[in-house]
Every structure is written in C-alpha cells, then in structure tokens.
Write a structure and sequence with these properties.
The chain has 181 residues and is mostly beta strands. It folds into two domains: 36 residues, Ubiquitin Ligase Nedd4, Chain: W (Single Sheet); 142 residues, Nucleoside Triphosphate Pyrophosphohydrolase (Alpha-Beta Complex). It has two helices and twelve strands, in the order βββββββαβββαββ. Strands 4, 5, 6, 7, 8, 9, 10, 11 and 12 form a nine-stranded mixed β-sheet that branches. A hairpin with a 5-residue loop joins β2 and β3. The mean pLDDT is 93.
C-alpha cells in the first residue's frame, strides 16, 4: 500500500495498532487503519443428468485449463447472487442453486471459495470471453490433470466421494504449501 485511500497521504506505517493483534497499514497523517481482508470467490458445481459442467478458461490465470464457473464476489451482492452471476458470465447458463457444497480457504492468496451445487434451469449455455469451451463430464471423464485450481479439484472430489443422491453436507478445505487439508 503506497497511499492512504482516506486522505491520500503517502506515508503509512505497517504496525500492530493498539488493541489489535495483526499488523496493518496505518496512515501517519489521518491515523486511519487500513484493514485488508480476504476476497470471496463464489461459484457452482453444476450437475445435469449425472454429468458435471466444466468450462475451459479463456483468461488468465490458468488460461486453457478446466474450471468450475467461479469468480470474485462483487460489492452489494449476496453470495448466491454472485454465484449465479459468475455462472452466467462464464457460460451464459442460468442455474438454480442447491446447498452450499464447499468452503475452501486459500490463505496464501487471501481467498475464500464458496461453491454451491446447482442445476441448469434451461438447456441453454454458450461460450463467452471467459470460456473457450464448455463441456459436461461423467465422473470417469473428468480431466483431472487439466483442472485449473485446487479449490475446483477439492469440490469435485468431495462431490464424487459423497455419491449421487445422498444428502450433501458442506465440506471445508484449505490449501497449505501444496497440500490439501
């Protein structure tokens, strides 16, 4: 952080403010504390007729790899609205959300993923600037070596471990130093 977003001052201290426990940027002029929190990433694991929708990424990071439709939550939207919006932005599909399927933490990237189970409300979907290919994969067809992110692999594995037709609990996972926990 180079400037205070409150007053524009260019001298910030990085220290633990009084009464806090974490180092934060503090403006030396107006004394505002700049809190930095994780980004929320929302999306869906879409299942139709036992097949899972994956979209090949048309943008970085991990361009060319397969992905569950997910993206950053916007201000002034709920996680459910954001998940539906991201699916539409990446695939043109409209979905009905089921239960929250996974909460996945990426502390090193300051991200938390919330992935819902979902079904399409109609059969229409199309390519977008964000997706160069869209496919539905049976469990034994999933291109595991081409899955873009550990959060996606975790959600897919937990879905397949649980089995079709069983009640779906919400799974919690985290990525630490190349290990899924």
């Amino acid at each position: 952080m180079k400037y205070c977003s409150e007053c524009g001052h260019d001298i910030l201290d990085y220290r633990i403010p009084k009464g806090d426990h974490t180092p934060r940027y503090v403006c030396t002029s107006c004394h505002i504390i700049h809190y930095q929190n994780p980004n929320m990433v929302v999306g869906c694991l879409i299942v139709n007729d036992g097949r899972i929708m994956l979209a090949r990424r048309g943008i970085e990071p991990r361009k060319g790899y397969w992905n569950l439709p997910c993206g950053f939550l916007e201000n002034e939207e709920t996680v459910q609205q954001g998940a539906k919006r991201e699916v539409f932005e990446e695939t043109g599909a409209s979905v009905e959300l089921g239960p929250l399927h996974t909460v996945y933490n990426l502390p090193h990237a300051n991200q938390v993923y919330l992935i819902f189970l979902a079904t399409m409300t109609d059969p229409h979907y199309h390519l977008t600037d964000e997706s160069t290919e869209i496919g539905f994969f049976a469990p034994d067809e999933i291109p595991w070596d081409e899955i873009a992110f550990s959060s996606n692999a975790f959600a897919l594995k937990k879905y397949l471990e649980n089995g079709e037709g069983k009640p779906h609990p919400t799974y919690l996972g985290s990525y630490f130093k190349d290990k899924i926990r």
